[in-house]
Amino acid sequence: xxxxxxxxxxxxPSLPPDSGSTRRDVxxxxxxxxxxxxxxxxxxxxxxAASALPAAxxxxxxxxxxxxxxxxxxxxxxxxxxxxxxxxxxxxRDQYAxxxxxxxxxxxxxxDLGFTVxxxxxxxxxxxxxxxTLVADGVQRPVPxxxxxxxxxxxxxxxxxxxxxxxxxxxxxxxxGGDLADFALFQGASFFRLVASGQxxxxxxxxxxLRPADPRGEEFPxxxxxxxxxxxxxxxxxIHALVESESATAALxxxxxxxxxxxxxxxxxxxxxxxxxxxxxxxxxxxxxxxxSERRGAEDIRAAVHGSEGLRIRxxxxxxxxxxxxxxxxxxxxxxxxxxxxxxGLMQRSRDYAxxxxxxxxxxxxxxxxxxxxxxxxxxxxxxxxxxxxxxANENVLAYWRPKEGLAAGAERALAYRLTWGWDAPERLRxxxxxxxxxxxxxxxxxxRFAVDFSGDDFTGGAELQTELxxxxxxxxxxxxxxxxxxxxxxVAFELDPAGAKACELRLLLRRxxxxxxxxxxxxxxx
Length: 527
Description:
Elements: E1 5-7, E2 27-29, E3 32-34, H1 48-51, H2 62-73, H3 86-89, H4 93-97, E4 115-121, E5 131-136, E6 139-142, E7 166-173, E8 181-187, E9 191-194, E10 204-206, E11 209-210, E12 222-229, E13 237-244, E14 248-257, E15 262-272, E16 279-286, E17 288-290, E18 305-306, E19 310-314, E20 320-324, E21 332-339, E22 343-347, H5 353-356, E23 368-373, E24 379-386, E25 397-403, E26 412-422, E27 434-441, E28 448-455, E29 466-472, E30 475-484, E31 489-497, E32 504-512, E33 515-516, E34 520-525
Parallel strand pairs: 5-12, 20-34
Antiparallel strand pairs: 1-21, 2-3, 4-7, 5-6, 7-8, 8-9, 9-10, 10-16, 11-16, 12-13, 13-14, 14-15, 15-26, 16-25, 17-18, 19-20, 19-22, 21-24, 22-23, 23-26, 24-25, 27-28, 28-31, 29-32, 30-31, 32-33, 32-34
């Protein structure tokens, strides 16, 4: 597998916090732009997509959403009206966050279905309008705006002249028993996230990603409408989504199942309004401020701050790759070329409170997010974007699959993949995983010292291990392997001399009898 590297001399401005929401920040510098779309449509009559939705009592089938997305893609894009009332657009983040759902008012609250659904208010943080429709017995029933859904104690909501609409939904589940707990959130652009039992919201999926960190500017496709099927059993809830942007539309079915590992089976069709040459599938975002590998500029009492600590890839050739995440000085874009990978994901491996020493955010309870195709993806690359950040509120890391071939204007592409939010990836490694990466100053000016730990049962014996370690460019000037059989761990300590290079790609794995016994550790060092 080749690892072409692009390091853009770009420094992000300070990114505003998102109060637990997903990133919608605008990045503009050095010709790289991330441009958000305008606010979503006003009343149904103001937007063709919304006006095309069938009326209450009409039949529903998944093909209806597909037909709507196809018809919408065949017409010129209509920018949504900026209709958010000033009384909502002027709310502070804290005021917006204080808008709560009245207990017992959620959809399905009295039906004992194992799920409840809470429509979420529009406001200053999430201003996009999303049309909500319930589906039961094959029939549609729109969810009208109702101010009585929202609790007192937050900002006083005025009597709106026009329907202000909803921005998304929160789904709660009993996870097979017990009290209702947060399970899923669909809100903001085309972002959605799930959690497994006992976890807190963390890594976020995107239904569609277009041109991230591209000089032409990123498009942020948006949920226009969500259809929520009445659950037929307590173990699954189905959401149908209409997604739209200037260049594309999509019709998706998302089957969500809660559990010790919660899954979202995503299937549907993407329609290209314009030629798509930078498409991101199975996209996911996370937060990384600092960790054990480096603490760049971290004046912080906490030991580590991140929602995920590494990118894991299972290649088409079945190689297991681990790439620790970083909060770099400049925007870093990495591409891991592959043919039909088995899966990839943003992983949170450290599950001990002591790793983080954070009494508020509970990073040890944030989920890992794993994506695996349900049909071969063909040639392309797992792409990783690491954006400089000075706040743990910013989702500054993005990973996605970028197909080698784009999509011509007017073309369609079927989508089918599974997302798993859980305590680890759904597949168990037979190789020893990377359990720690540390880095610090070396023995001479300009040098950097590293220590990489692998843990597994293969290290309890005394059989010979071969260390495969390379740097490109740069030179490995020292290396030592330390065995700790009582901890089932080996550590490879080495020193890198970059010899003036602005970036060095490091690669490390351990073998026994020419057979890999560890993951392949990859790392990009930059000054």
